[in-house]
Amino acid sequence: MADRRQPTSLPSTAKKDIQWKWWAFGIAILLLLIIVLQNSQHVEFKLLFLVDTSAPLVLLLLLAALIGAVIGYTAPILRRHRHKTRQEYGKE
Predict the structure, then answer these.
(1) CA 23 vs CA 9, 18, 60, 68, 72: distances in Å
(2) What is the pLDDT of residues 7-65, one digit of tens each?
(3) Which domain holds residue 28?
(4) Residue 56 domain-assigned?
(5) 7 domain-assigned
(6) Is residue 8 part of a domain?
(7) Number of folded domains that form the chain
(8) Bridge partners, residue 43, by sequence
(9) Domain annotation covers residue 6
(10) Which listed site, 6, 45, 89, 91, has its alpha carbon 20 to 30 Å from 19?
(11) In angstroms, what is the C-alpha Rg of the chain?
């Protein structure tokens, strides 16, 4: 008969990799908070040459970090989807 072992949850290397990612994420958030809290003054900025206003630098930094996180999260997903679509149509 075939060897039927019980499936294990995750190999030990995968668990270490996951913990490393959480530590890196936590350190990045901590550094972002330090930078944001040290820059609480109001600044003037222009938005697409149309809007000229002022806002707290804290909000602008958080907005820039949020936009960067969204782009960093979605870009690989869109690239993967585009690659799969090309394979489906036989272009690769």
Answers:
(1) 21, 9, 26, 19, 18
(2) 555 555 556 667 888 888 899 889 988 887 888 889 898 888 888 888 888 888 888 88
(3) 14-88
(4) yes
(5) no
(6) no
(7) 1
(8) 55
(9) no
(10) 6
(11) 22
